[in-house]
Amino acid sequence: MPLVPVESSRSLPRWTPAVALAAVCGLLLPKLSEFGIWDPWELEVADLGRNIAEGKDVLVQSIGPWLVGQGFRRLGVDEWTGRLPIALCGLLMVALCYALVAHFAGRRAGVYAVIIAGSSPLFIFNARMMLGEAPAFAAQTAIALAASVAVFGRDQKRPTQLLWLGATLLFSGIGVLTHGALLCVLPPVVAVGALAVFEGKLGRRDTDALNRLSALVVCAMSLGLVMMIARDVLADGAEFSIWLGGKPVGGQPPTFDNVIDRVFHAFAPWSALLPMSLAGLVWMDAEDDDSNIDERRLRRVLVLWLALSFASLTLFLSRYGQKAAVMPVTAISAAVALFLCDVERSKRSQWPAAIAALLLAGLLLRDFALYPSTPVEGLPLADFALPDVFNPKGSWSAVIGIFGGIAFVSLGAYADPPPPLGLRTPYRFLATQWRRGIGWRLWLLSLGLLLIGTIAFGLVCFLAPGSLHLSSLGTKWGQRVLLVPVAVPVIVAALQFVVFLSTRLQRWRSVSVLIAGLSVGAYAAHGFMPALNAHFSPREVYDTYNDLAVRGESLIEYKVESRAAAYYAKGRAIEVDSLSKCVDELDNKERRWAILPSDELAMVDRIFRARTNRHLFVADARSARLVLVTNRAIAGRADQSFLSKFVKTDVPKIQHKVEANFEDKILLLGYDLKLPHGDYVGAGESFELTMYWKALRSVPGNFRIFLHIDASELRIHGDHDPVDGKYPVRLWNAGDIIVDRQKLDVPPNYDSGPYTIFVGFYSGETRLTIKSGPKDDANRANAGVLRIR
């Protein structure tokens, strides 16, 4: 039989697979050195690869570091040379993915699977980093392809059949070395072997002899794998097991839904289509007749492959480590590709699937906004967390929101033949309802009166907002309803136009979904990853030092627990292990540079100021983890230190003076209010409060600032550590003027009126006593009034 069904071959030009692979290349290969090495996760693999490149005797438990070492050995030590072998494994995976899906389901499904797999963050992150699992992805896909063709291939020559069987054995051995047998080899091998048993390949006389031999070998491999893995699971030995891909570790095992959570986030945006795709694997298989037996077999293999992968990964994560990616990228990509092909073949509107896709895309947006680390859950990382300052929810909302909207329209808006584009159709529909009788006319009149009343209310809110005595939030929403008469016709026309274009695509309506998915992949590869890198790689900091330092100026590394300087620093790096030594090096007549953790800056600067009466100059503070400082200001470059901005020696101009004295230790000089309406803030709005403190002497202990903005039984809480926790009270020096700025929200249900601002210091149940200034009987300084409307 031909490798690709005739109908599918004619539906796509022969050059289409090459275009799809080129698109994936555009996501993976450009700018592999655009972002630095993640410290410590990727740096550990880079160090192993560097040792391998230098010929050192290194024991590695997977093939990834060995590939990185080969890149370093042949092309030199650089980010791109270490990542290139992993990226090439990723390209090999998508090529094998196309071969597998196209062989059994046609060229169209194969192209779709390539684009879906290549544009997911799960694939992109694992193929663009040295710690990625792209080699394991490629090995598992190769095993599935070779085993499936060896067992189920028809009308193949004897040498070709034997080659497929030999490739199954070879790729299985590579898979064991790549990430162990449990995760990489067992799911595809057992899936093919189980289907061979279900179809009676071992005993049916009409089965080709070589197919029967291949089925026998694959089933024997499956039994052997299950037995060896079960043996090591029951033995629970302390040493590393090549069958399990790890060794027993302690800790609380995750629940079974951990794998589902990882797939849903890492396979975005395609996970919005995944539930319907998995259901389609079973549903369409039950509906189809025997005319397309190859595609039916692929669906069955995918179902078994995914089920076994879920069980394997759940077992691994519960006992043998957290450092594992979701392996069956090809299987889940093929499932979504087949679903899109089913939608195109159906020639029917798929409104239930469209609504589900839109809702799941919204759930992705919600999770990405609340938990910024979720897109990275597909990487084999442990103890990974993103800094609070990094949350690109706007960018994710744009690309995933567009994907969700396009998927909704493409799945739901389809008719054969396509309807004409009639911009007056919605309004003709209203006219038709008017002619249906008195009941419909009453409904339409009621809606018309409601619309007129809403517009009148909006005009009053816009022209005379104070006349209705509404809260600021109510007035704001009243003004927004004025957009309704303009927005509704525009939205209706836009939806009509989108539906019209979607229906014109007919059998190609999935193309718009694929393009939207590629846009998500482009952002993940060339937007999200480089932006995230500034917080996990020290490269930017070292690059700034290399650009600004003059030959001979030393670089001090304080509490930088990595070998990053070996990759990036061009000058002499001096490691110091104590705070006093670090300050001694910086307290020098000559310029000195230092790289230190961001949370150590306040302490180092405090001691440096005590000696020199000036702040350290921060040359680079882009990272949330490390900063580059120097003991001399740099002409023409702005100081990026938060200390120079929020810790001053002179008293600035203050809007509201208070002069509350806390035990002759701290003086509240006053505060500024930045309100959205000049002298008041509305319910549901935000405002900014800036307090000015003067340290009279040091305050030992862990005192924090409490802030109560009270009226009746309502309170706005603002308890916090000063300067966003970067400059705690225990570090304040006598004479410091601390500028402490907060952004606070007023709940939308709060009443209008004056709210009293109370402020003070607490540590546990202890508060600093107010010796002088406005106060109440609970050691709270009465700072003034906030007006809410």
Entry keywords:
789 residues; alpha+beta; Immunoglobulin-like; 5-stranded mixed β-sheet; flat
Summarize the structure.
This protein is an alpha+beta fold. It is 53% helix and 12% strand.
Q: What's the number of helices?
A: 27
Q: What helical percentage do the residues reach?
A: 40-55%
Q: How would the global form be characterised?
A: flat
Number of domains: 3
Total strand segments:
16
**Can you tell me the residue ranges where pLDDT is under 50 for at least 5 consecutive residues?**
1-10
Structural class: alpha+beta
Average pLDDT: 87
In angstroms, what separates the terminal alpha carbons?
Answer: 77 Å
Largest sheet: 6 strands, antiparallel
Gyration radius (Cα, Å) is: 32 Å
Strand residues, percent: 5-15%
Largest sheet strand order? 6-12-9-8-7-15
